[in-house]
Amino acid sequence: TPQADVELAALEHWVEPPAVQLRRFCALWWTKPLVSGSVDAFISKRVPVQVVRAGDAELLFLPAEPGASVGAELRADTPARRTRFVIDHANDWLGYVVDPQAFERGGYEACFSFFGSGMANWLTTQASESIGLLDARDPGPVGGR
Asked: Which residues is 58 bridged to in the sheet?
C-alpha cells in the first residue's frame, strides 16, 4: 500500500572478511599450493555491507551468497513492523556462505565457501552490526560512511 511521508535511510559499512580457509578435500584444497596466491588475489580485502530502509521495507545487500538456512537466519531477527529482503552478490562476491553443518557435510556450495565453517556467523554478525548502525542513526537524509 502506498504511504505518504516515507522515511528513507541508507548505510554502507565496510568490513574485512576473515582469512581464507579452504575446505579439505575440495578441488581448490587439493591444488592449494599452486592456487593459494590466486585465491588470495581474487578475494577482496574489504567489502561493503549495505542497508537501505524505505518505510517498513529493509534491503540488506551482502557481498556473498548465503545458503537457505543462513538467509533464513538473516531474516529471522527482523522486527515485526519491517519486511527484510536479502540481496546477495551485491558489490562483490566472497563465495557461498553455508551453515557449519552444511560446510562439514561438503558438496558444491561448501567447496566454494572460502572462509571455513565460521563464515555464516561472521556474515550474520556483520549484517546485524550494519543494521544496528543504521538503527542508531538519527532519521535523516540518505547517507552513510
From this structure: 53, 84
Please name the residues in contact with 18: beta carbons below 8 A apart, sequence gap of 6 or more.
115, 116, 118, 119, 122
| CA proximity to 53, closest of 123, 125, 130 | 130
HSE toward the beta carbon, residue 140, CA cutoff 13 A: 7
Q: What is the DSSP letter of 42?
A: H
Distance CA 36, CA 55 (A): 45
Pairing, β 47-54 against β 83-87: unpaired
Q: Which of 78, 53, 61 is nearest to 15 (CA)?
A: 61
* pLDDT digit string, tens, across residues 45-85: 999 999 999 989 999 999 999 999 999 999 998 988 899 99
Are 44 and 92 a contacting pair, CB within 8 Å?
yes
38 HSE (CA, 13 A, CB side): 7
Degrees (nearest 5) of the Cα angle 17, 22, 26?
Answer: 145
Alpha-carbon gap, residue 114 to 106, rounded angstroms:
12
- What's the angle, vertex CA 39, arms to CA 110 and CA 63, rounded to 5? 65
Residues 62, 35 contacting (CB under 8 angstroms): no
